[in-house]
Amino acid sequence: MTNTARFRRQLAGIGLPLILALSAAQTTYAAPAGGGTPHAGPGEKTVTLVNQDTHGSPTIRFDVKGNAIDAHDGQIQRFGDTYYLYGTSYGCGYEWNTPGAPFCGFVSYSSPDLVHWTPRGPLFDASSKTWQKRCDGGTYGCYRPHLVFNKKTRKYVLWINSYDTGVGYHVFTSDHPTRGFEEVAVPDLAAPEGAPGGVNYGDHQVFVDHDGAAYLAFTDWIRGGDIIIERLDDTYTTGTGHWTRTNLRSTEAPMIFERGGTYYLTYSDPNRGYMTTGTGYVTAPTPLGPWSGTSASRDAWSVADGMMNIEGGGVGLSREGEDWRDYSFEAKVTPKRAEGGDYAQVGLAVRGSAVGSYQWLIGNYPHEGAVGGNLTKLVPGKPATIVKLPMPITTGQSYDVKITVEGSRIETRIDGRLVDTTVDTTSDHGRVGFRESQGDGERASIDDVSVTAADGTVLLSDDFSDGLTKWDRPASTITGTNITTTSCGGQPADVLPLKTSSGTVYLYQSDVWMNAKANEALAKHYWQPLEFNGDGSIRPIECGRSYGVTVPVRPGKPQKRTRQVETGDAGYRTHWDVAGGLARAQEITMPEAGRLRAVRFTTFQSGHPNAPLVLDLRRTGADGMGATVASVEIPADKVSWAARWAELTLDRPLRVRAGDRFALVVRSATTQGAFGIAYSDTTPYGGGRALISHDGGEKWTEEPGRVLHVEADVS
Q1: What are the two backbone dihedrals, phi and then psi, of residue 577, each rounded to the nearest 5 degrees?
Q2: pTM score of the predicted model
Q3: Residue 406: helix, strand or coil by DSSP?
Q4: DSSP 3-state assignment of 636?
Q5: Cis ω for the linkage preceding 529 (within 30 of 0)
Q6: In the chain, what is the straight-line distance between the N-terminal and C-terminal CA atoms, in Å?
Q7: If pLDDT is split at 50, 70 and 90, which confidence band does 549 have?
Q8: For residues 223 and 202, is the Cβ–Cβ distance under 8 A?
Q9: In 3D, which of 142, 83, 81, 145 has the Cα closest to residue 109?
Q10: Residues 560, 568: contact at Cβ < 8 Å?
């Protein structure tokens, strides 16, 4: 792990997943799962949900038009007799933390049966300057569209996560589940808001209980990845002030569902953006808790030998001081070796208020460019900055630290030496405290604490002889149960309960990310029904290739794509290398006489190609590639980042005979980035070979057993 990666990990408070053994109680099933059931009731059908090919690699889910589904970090809901898949689109070229990358908005798909998906377009127009400013690649982005229906107001309510507000969310309503969403007022939640533009609150879910009450479960980054649940008002658009904490750490992406009177909260464990991570869960008798897991941690703060000892826990603050403004905060601190790394670090907090706190981390953490000692400054709502100290920080050695706040000026002294002056106006009042990362197991000892006002008045003095009576120390944390350490290749997204004649199916969903590659439009989906033990615990997730599941379906025949020539939709993966001299081709055979009107090839762009994509339709035969019948040049900016059809339409339909063979060639002269393919090594196609060329199309080599995703219209 690079130093930069370690730094980011330390700031996020990420810990390693804890894998706990599930109960050995006799296994029972909440609903038919795994291989499905032969008995489907009226209005039900056993469908096959395919996640992977026979080699275990994630595969594309195509919509009814033949394009890959481009909806991520969202959820599936069922309204009436129709399933809806909601997600963030990435196909226009959104890249996380990439200035200039556009925001693509939120989209939906509908399905009668969880298999055949029809694209329904954007939930609202996100191309405006307002939404691009809020969500484009120069920001932290906007994610996690979660949507519910309010029976009282007859409105569909959409919540999305953003970072341009202190509360971290925008809310919309509509009369329709797939369009016409209009923003309402920014929600008001009981948890203290952070500064706008900061990483305050993250991934969320809206849960509607049996009695119609709705709850927002959301990630609290101010408290190191805890999860908060707040009851919403009758409109589902804002909070009520009734809320609770789970006291988890280093988690995100919460999802609540109820089974047999027990409420389950699943979550990403630990939190990792666009990376493979685990799924854990805790339980409670009500949505507002109390939430419990398999164990609870000891108190992070304790007193021994006349000093306060800290082991992780995050931020704790003084009980008094909400209205303190100008003061000096002094303490003798001893940073000790962290359990999660070969370094020592101690954090002091000043002006802790509703917008957060200034957290000054003093230690020998191995940041890039730092040697011996450094000060990492965390200002609410702003990126971290690192100051190299003029002296080393030695593990186990004590230091007298004094932080003076006066107006917008913050001065830091170590052993009487001025080491930093910061000017900032984010907060002008608040409490003092200490911070040690829970995920990294940071440790320190503290003694002789005092806070003195500018006029000399002593506001706080503590030698810990009376214990910790003057402090709101971090709450003890709970540990949940991990049901998978990989979330089947990504991060958990949602759990959808579906009532059937045989019981309730609890459909687990996760996003199979590309492990933080630039093009996350290529991310896949993983879906599996959960299974439960007799004691109610969730069985480990298997991450299987496919599952036969009996689910409610809408009456009628699903919409399907019909073409005269097609290479099928099963088992396709993505790869990108069409650039320079490397070209690819797929042969196809005409099944009968007719007129060839158009051919299509699934492709995408990655890495910002600087030349167009070219499709050539060429005749083939025993002598290899023949004459070019038609050709089209597609500008790179017209090619999606998601896997979609690129079409070559013939100016005049070409008369063909049964058995005529053609090759659709894909090439580009780009010297930057590449264009991609959708391919399968597990789905046979008898109508022709997949070919590759490394010299711009002069010589071609067969790729045995491979097929590229192609179709043609023949009338």
Answers
A1: -160, 5
A2: 0.81
A3: strand
A4: helix
A5: no
A6: 57
A7: very high
A8: no
A9: 83
A10: no
